[in-house]
C-alpha cells in the first residue's frame, strides 16, 4: 500500500491567476477571469496527489495572525494539512496568463520567526514516525531560515528510510545535493547545479537520484541503476505554472509505492505525461486526467546509460 505523501512548503502563497487576452506593459489591461487559491509548490503537489488517487498532507508554515487566509484556502481545497504559524503574513503570487504567454509575479514573503526550523522539524518527524510513504520538499526558503533547512529536513527523511524529493533552487539545491534526496531541478536549476561539477557526480556525491525536467523537452533521470530520457508524445500549450509540481506528485507516488525498487522508465513516463497534462489546466495544482492516461503509454523513454 502507498503511504501518505507529505509535502513540505516553507514559503506558501496565495496564488492569483489573471487570464487576459493580451498583456502589454504600460497599458491598462482588463481581467475578465480571476482565480485565487491557497498555493505554494507543496500545495500544488498535494492537490495533484489527490487527483491521482493518493493521500497527502500539506505541512507548511503559515501566518501567525488570524484570520488565516492560507488555512481557509486549504480547507476550501479539501486538503489535509498541518500548519506551523511562523510567518507575519503569507505572500501572494500572480500568474498573468495571456493567449500567447504567461507572466509570473512573485512576492518574496515575510521572514520566518525565530524557532521556525525547530517547529517544522518536529512536525515532520512526527509525520515520518506515523506512516509517511514519501516526502516532497519544494519551493523557496523564506528569510529568517537557513537555505540549508530543506537539506536538513531531507536528511531526517532519508535517515528514517522515507524517500524524499527536493524541488528547490539556489543555495538550497546545492545543499540538498548532499542530503540523500531525489533532486528535481528544471533546466535552469540543473545548469546552476552543474557549475559545481558534472551531473554524473551527483548520485555518488549524496543525491538519491536526479530527475531533471525540461518543459516540452520532457525529462531525464540519472540514478544508481542507469539513466533515461523521456519525451512527451506532443507539445501542448497553456499554463505551465504547475507542471513541475505535477511531475513531483507523480514521482512521489512511485517512490512511496516502490521505494528503492522504482521502475524508473515507467516512473519517468508518468512524470512527463502528468506534467504535460497540468499545462492544459488553468491553474496550478490541477491535471487533465484523460490526457495523462492517453499520454503515458505514448511517451517515449530511452536508456542513455
Automatic annotation (TrEMBL):
Signal peptide residues on this chain, from the entry's feature table: none
Domain of life: Bacteria
Keywords, comma-separated and alphabetical: ATP-binding, Kinase, Nucleotide-binding, Transferase
Cellular component, GO, one term: cytosol
Pfam families the record matches: PfkB (PF00294)
InterPro entries with a match to the protein in the record: PfkB_dom, Ribokinase-like, Tagatose/fructose_Pkinase
Residue ranges of every copy of the Carbohydrate kinase PfkB domain listed in the record: 14-282
Molecular functions per Gene Ontology: ATP binding; phosphofructokinase activity
PANTHER family (UniProt xref): 1-PHOSPHOFRUCTOKINASE, 1-PHOSPHOFRUCTOKINASE-RELATED
Family: Belongs to the carbohydrate kinase PfkB family.
The protein's name in its UniProt record: 1-phosphofructokinase/tagatose 6-phosphate kinase
Species name: Lentzea fradiae
Amino acid at each position: 500500500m502507498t503511504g501518505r505523501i507529505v509535502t513540505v512548503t516553507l514559503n506558501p502563497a496565495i496564488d492569483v491567476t489573471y487570464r487576459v487576452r493580451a498583456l502589454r506593459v504600460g497599458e491598462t489591461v482588463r481581467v475578465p477571469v480571476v482565480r485565487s487559491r491557497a498555493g505554494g509548490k507543496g500545495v500544488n503537489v498535494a492537490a495533484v496527489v489527490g487527483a491521482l488517487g493518493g493521500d497527502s498532507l500539506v505541512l507548511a508554515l503559515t501566518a501567525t495572525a488570524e484570520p488565516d487566509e492560507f488555512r481557509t484556502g486549504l480547507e476550501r481545497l479539501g486538503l489535509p494539512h498541518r500548519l506551523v504559524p511562523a510567518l507575519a503574513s503569507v505572500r501572494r503570487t500572480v500568474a498573468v496568463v495571456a493567449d500567447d504567454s504567461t507572466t509570473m509575479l512573485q512576492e518574496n514573503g515575510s521572514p520566518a520567526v525565530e524557532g521556525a526550523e525547530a517547529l517544522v522539524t518536529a512536525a515532520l518527524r512526527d509525520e515520518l514516525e506515523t506512516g509517511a510513504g514519501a516526502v516532497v520538499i519544494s519551493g523557496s526558503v523564506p528569510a529568517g531560515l537557513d537555505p540549508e533547512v530543506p537539506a536538513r529536513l531531507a536528511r531526517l527523511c532519508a535517515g528514517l528510510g522515507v524517500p524524499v524529493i527536493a524541488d528547490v533552487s539556489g543555495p538550497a539545491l546545492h545543499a540538498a545535493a548532499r542530503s540523500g534526496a531525489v533532486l528535481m531541478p528544471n533546466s535552469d536549476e540543473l545548469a546552476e547545479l552543474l557549475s559545481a561539477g558534472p551531473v554524473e557526480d551527483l548520485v555518488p556525491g549524496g543525491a538519491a537520484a536526479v530527475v531533471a525536467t525540461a518543459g516540452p523537452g520532457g525529462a531525464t533521470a540519472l540514478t544508481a541503476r542507469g539513466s533515461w530520457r523521456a519525451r512527451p508524445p506532443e507539445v501542448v500549450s497553456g499554463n505551465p505554472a504547475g507542471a513541475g509540481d505535477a511531475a513531483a506528485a507523480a514521482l512521489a507516488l512511485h517512490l512511496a509505492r516502490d521505494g528503492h525498487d522504482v521502475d524508473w522508465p515507467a516512473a519517468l513516463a508518468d512524470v512527463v505525461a502528468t506534467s504535460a497534462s497540468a499545462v492544459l489546466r488553468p491553474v496550478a495544482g490541477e491535471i487533465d486526467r484523460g490526457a495523462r492516461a492517453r499520454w503515458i503509454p505514448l511517451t517515449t523513454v530511452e536508456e542513455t546509460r
